[in-house]
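Work Package 3 (structural annotation) set out to generate three-dimensional models for the target panel prioritized at the project kickoff. During this period the team completed the workflow that converts sequence records into discrete structure tokens, so that structures can be stored uniformly alongside our sequence database. As a representative example, we reproduce one entry of 453 residues exactly as it appears in the project archive.
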Amino acid sequence: MKTQLFQDFDAVSSKQWKQQIQFELNGADYNDTLIWESLEGIKVKPFYHSDDSISTYTSNTKTTAFTILQQIFVHDIQMSNKKAKESLNRGAESILFTIESDKIDITKLMANLPLENVVYYFHLPFISTEYVKTLNDFATTNSYNFIIQVDPIGQLCKDGNWFENLNSDIQKLNGISKNTSIPFLNIQAGMYQNSGANMVQQLAYTLAHCNEYFNRISAINKPITIEVAIGTNYFFEIAKLHALRLLFNTLAAEYKHNFDCHIIATPTKRNKTLYDYNVNMLRTTTECMSGILGGANAVSNLAYDAIYHKDNEFGDRISRNQLLILKEESYFDKVNNASDGAYYIESLTDQLAEKALELFKEIEANGGFITQLIEGTIQRKISESAQKEQELFNSGKEILLGTNKYPNPNDKMKHDLELFPFVKTKDRKTLIVPIIEKRLAEKVEQERLALEE
């Protein structure tokens, strides 16, 4: 017998809830006490109700389709091939190879790697129509599922210079688009989060970044890959990915494109710490959860020691196992659209999308993304946002446990550094001021390292 449990209770309106809360506050101001404002200018209420839910967003988060992604930097072909095999045998479901040279032999790199049910990504920090054609032909001939990642605008943002120059890079992209049957275009959106941009800026800059390609490449008929960094603001990050898909699909429709974006989510480096580094595992776990529930197609976890250790088997295994636990033991891949009906997330999605769209229109009205990069406007806005967040960290309002809250004075790290974990600066001539990624805890950590014996 089916029981209509909630028919026995009277519905309570949003107004009634608010009146009761106001009564319980004993005269304290409702807005001052219970409403807080995020760095994006979004006022977060203490409760959300169907009465005031006017979301126009229909979620389509296929969590059942998300794959566990292992990233591999290709230096030695045989070692990279071996690591890919071991990673796939130990739980990885897709592989992202970073290839820095067109001299890498794709046949040797892919030797005996499984063909079915695995997506292979190839991040190319260079632009070569011939090498992309080689990858495309190999995938087509051998029926591999390849996704190529080429992003000249991302190169400009991070390095300050194009691969060659604007006209040459775009000309090569147009050549690639006409002779490639697999996805080839990438948006390195993670740098915006890692450099301190707030979520509205991240979304708007990603959209403007993408719009430059829509404007300049004559034939785009394959999904665009977007690499996104996920922070620790759990519900906001879920909404950010929802808003990203909504905005991308809205923009693509204007160009008569009928494909979706392909999102790769990775935990941010911005809140990761050198001291009390095990807390990084807690941070990356919730960040991966946001990525999955937000609808990322692939999630690549960040090893707890990634900022100061070279790639190592133990760090990779722990980070991969975090995702395996979420997938196989926490059942995060069992229900699509898990956040449906969450008025809070729906409200955040709408507000983030609306604010990002407004900023995107402002960018376009002032010449577009590349123009604003050359003028330095984008970099200045990110710097201003990063400084606000840095001040919150410095004052203790933004807390990183083990670093600016409950630090362990006996924790020593000076002799454990295999990588330089801070911003590197070098004087050189660039077309624009590059967008520089920087962690919140860098200054505190440098001071502590200087005091170690």
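The chain has a mean pLDDT of 94.
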